[in-house]
C-alpha cells in the first residue's frame, strides 16, 4: 500500500489524531485487509515525512496527562506527538481503512484547536527561516500559500511571516 499524503491525513482524521506508531499500525491493518501484503516501512516513513514537510500532516503535542496517564484531549501520554490532518490536506480514507478504528480500538481524540494552531504557526516560522536562509524561492512561494491555508484551518494569524516571505522574494 502506497499511501498519499491525503490518504495519510484521511486515516489520522478518522481518529482525530494518531501517533506515528499508531498510524503505521493503522496502515498495516488497511494494507492487510486490501491484499494481505505488508507495508513497505521505508516508503511509509518517507511518505509521512513528506506529508509533514508539505503540511498535509501536523504534529500536535497533547496536553499534560491526568493521573490515569491519559491527556485531557484523549491522547496517550507516551510522549509521542499526535499527527493530525493538516491545512494542505484533503483527507481521503483509503479503501479498506474505514474499519481500522474498530480494529485498533482507539477512541476519537479531541484536539485543542488553539494549541494546534500555535504548533502550525511555529512550524511555518521554522520552515520560513530555513527557506529564507537557503534562498529557496520555490519553497518561499509555497510557504506563502501555506500561510493562508493555516489561517483558514486554525485560529492563528501569519501576516508577519507572510510579509517576511514576500520581502525575501523581492530581495
Give keywords.
globular, 3-stranded antiparallel β-sheet, mainly alpha, 6% strand, 171 residues, 3 strands, Arc Repressor Mutant, subunit A, 2 domains
Question: Helix and strand layout, with pairings?
Answer:
Layout: H1 5-15, E1 18-19, H2 20-35, H3 41-53, E2 57-60, E3 82-85, H4 100-104, H5 113-134, H6 137-153, H7 159-170
Antiparallel strand pairs: 1-3, 2-3
Helix pairs in contact: 1-3, 5-6, 5-7, 6-7
Region (Disordered): 63-82
Pfam families: DUF7109
What is the strand arrangement across the widest sheet?
Answer: 1-3-2
Write down the oligomeric state.
single chain
Number of strands: 3
pLDDT under 50 segments (min length 5)? none
The largest sheet is: 3 strands, antiparallel
| CATH superfamily label of the largest domain | Winged helix-like DNA-binding domain superfamily/Winged helix DNA-binding domain
Strand and helix order: HEHHEEHHHH
Structure commentary:
The protein is 56% helix and 6% strand. It has 171 residues and is mainly alpha-helical. It folds into two domains: 5-111, Winged helix-like DNA-binding domain superfamily/Winged helix DNA-binding domain (Arc Repressor Mutant, subunit A), CATH 1.10.10; 114-170, no CATH class. A three-stranded antiparallel beta sheet has the order 1-3-2. α1 crosses α3 (41-53) and α5 (113-134) runs parallel beside α7.
Concise overview:
The protein has 171 residues and is mostly helical.
Amino acid at each position: 500500500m502506497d499511501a498519499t499524503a491525503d490518504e495519510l491525513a484521511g486515516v489520522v482524521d478518522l481518529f482525530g489524531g494518531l501517533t506515528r506508531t499508531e498510524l503505521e499500525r493503522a496502515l498495516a491493518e488497511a494494507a492487510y485487509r486490501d491484499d494481505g501484503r505488508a507495508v513497505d516501512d521505508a516508503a511509509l516513513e518517507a511518505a509521512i515525512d513528506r506529508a509533514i514537510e508539505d503540511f498535509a500532516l501536523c504534529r500536535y503535542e497533547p496536553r499534560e496527562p491526568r493521573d490515569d496517564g491519559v491527556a485531557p484531549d484523549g491522547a496517550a501520554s507516551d510522549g509521542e506527538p499526535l499527527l493530525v490532518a493538516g491545512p494542505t490536506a484533503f483527507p481521503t480514507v483509503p479503501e479498506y481503512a474505514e474499519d481500522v478504528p474498530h480494529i485498533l480500538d482507539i477512541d476519537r481524540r479531541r484536539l485543542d484547536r488553539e494549541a494546534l494552531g500555535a504548533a502550525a504557526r511555529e512550524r511555518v516560522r521554522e520552515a520560513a527561516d530555513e527557506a529564507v536562509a537557503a534562498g529557496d524561492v520555490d519553497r518561499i512561494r509555497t510557504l506563502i500559500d501555506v500561510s493562508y491555508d493555516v489561517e483558514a484551518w486554525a485560529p492563528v494569524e501569519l501576516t508577519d511571516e507572510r510579509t517576511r516571505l514576500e520581502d525575501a522574494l523581492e530581495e
